[in-house]
Amino acid sequence: MSETTTCAIVGGGPAGIMLGLLLARAGVEVTVLEKHGDFLRDFRGDTVHPSTMSLLDDLGLGARFAALPKSIIERAGPDVDGHSMTLVDFTRLRHRHPYVAMVPQWDLLSLLAEAAEAEPKFTLRMNCAATGLLREGDRVTGVHYLGPDGPGELHAELTVACDGRTSVLRQAAGLIAHEYPVPFDLWWFRLPRESGGEYSLIPRTAGGRMVIMIPREGYFQIAYFIPKNADERLRGEGLAAFRRNLAELIPEIPTDALTSWDDVKLLDVRLNRLHRWYTDGLLCIGDAAHAMSPAGGVGINLAIQDAVATARLLAAPLRAHSVRSRDLAAVQRRRTLPTAAIQAFQRAMHRGMSRQTGVGLQLPAALRTVFERLPGLSVVPAYLVGVGLRPERAPAFARRDEPG
Fold first, then answer.
1. Alpha-carbon dihedral sign for residues 223, 205, 180, 76
2. What pLDDT was estimated at residue 371?
3. Which domains does the chain possess?
4. Concatenated DSSP letters for 19-32?
5. Are 48 and 100 in contact (CB under 8 A)?
6. Per-residue confidence (pLDDT) for residue 365, from 0 to 100
7. Strand partners, 361
8. Cystine design at 11: which of 111, 137, 163, 261 (Cβ 3.0–4.6 Å)?
């Protein structure tokens, strides 16, 4: 099967669905290919930051987002061996949304997809996995994909890779990323939510171990930090030993509910950035251009900001059917500074982790003293994480009034 569109977007995550919505509102014919049949995947993060909530307001989606089940995080900071301190205080931001909302990402994606599907120029194709690139000479002209009815081809004037940090399209294009060292990986699993605790962004640490608990309906999604490349060794110590270590960190949660290693998934944490985000006919954004560490929970919002900048810069060339490599280069120039700044912040957070175990937080006494004496400094990381150095506003062609 062979089809044609103006813009093919591969990946139905935050960057892909948001870009599809914005371009469709600009009058650009766009097709999004998503390899899964739904958005329900535990590995997706839940943080929605102030800049993203303002964007949803401008798109006329603020009320619908506000109706989603969520937890509100106003302050964040570590509880290190019993010493609690606030390093990030969103309430100090002069912003219409001075907090982070914890919303299951599948709910956010469903909201965006529903809004996009109301646009006549938008098409979402689920269960369609991109398998390679179509080319004419050196120019990318679309993608090969495998769908419910077998293999197909989607021809496009521009292809945008939003297919994550293991991007098939990035690899097919031969685009090279610079890798930064990361001292930890994550074990990802669920435990029953039987108490009223709301731990979300705030890590709990003790004895060189660290855990983050994301509250979801009926359970906690647990992110347990382990030293880089230690998965096999730690599993070899046995599940009972792991449950004992976990119980010391979160004694209020029944860790015996974890009955099999099959329930504990490994997330290989990466931090990287492409040297060049594009080639003729292809642009990478979001994690496909720059894989982010979970530190700070900024990946979703940075990907959405990429999508907004891409739509603003490329809508007119796409409508005129005249996208050139210089247009794609303009997207990279626009988004490199905020991406590099956040990654530098994450690398600094990584350096604060234990050199012996790769996990836990090692806060210098001087840093504790500074934040305790000057609590107003907590607005600086709050702005960097919650708003960013170059927040993107909804372009005029995409703005809508709230219904009713």
1. positive
2. 63
3. 2-76+97-180+270-398 (3.50.50.60), 184-227+229-267 (3.30.70)
4. HHHHHHHTT--EEE
5. yes
6. 57
7. 353
8. 163
Q: How far is CA 4 from CA 7, 86, 319, 364, in A?
A: 9, 52, 15, 57
Going by the DSSP 8-state scheme, the letter that residue 380 receives in this structure is: H
Residue with the two structure tokens 């347990």:
224
Q: Contact at 8 Å (CB) between 272 and 290?
A: yes
DSSP structural state of residue 35: S
Q: Where are the alpha helices (DSSP H) in 206-298?
A: 231-236, 239-249
The answer to whether 80 touches 361, Cβ cutoff 8 Å, is yes
Per-residue pLDDT tens digits for 79-110: 555 566 677 889 999 899 999 888 888 899 99
- H-run or E-run covering 108: helix 105-117
pLDDT for position 114: 97
Q: Are 215 and 72 in contact (CB under 8 A)?
A: no
Which residues in the chain show pLDDT less than 50? Answer: 356
β-partners of residue 150 are: 147
Write out the E strands in 62-197: 71-73, 75-76, 79-80, 83-84, 88-89, 100-102, 122-125, 129-136, 139-147, 150-161, 177-179, 184-192
Please, which residues have CB within 8 angstroms of residue 156's CB and are 6 or more apart in sequence? 4, 5, 6, 7, 8, 31, 141, 142, 143
pLDDT attached to residue 362? 56
Confirm if 191 and 243 have CB atoms less than 8 A apart.
no
Residue 57's H or E segment, with its range, is helix 50-58
> What local confidence, expressed as pLDDT, does residue 44 receive?
63
**Separation of alpha carbons 105 and 303, rounded Å:** 13
CA torsion angle for 45, 271, 325, 109 (degrees, to 10)? 0
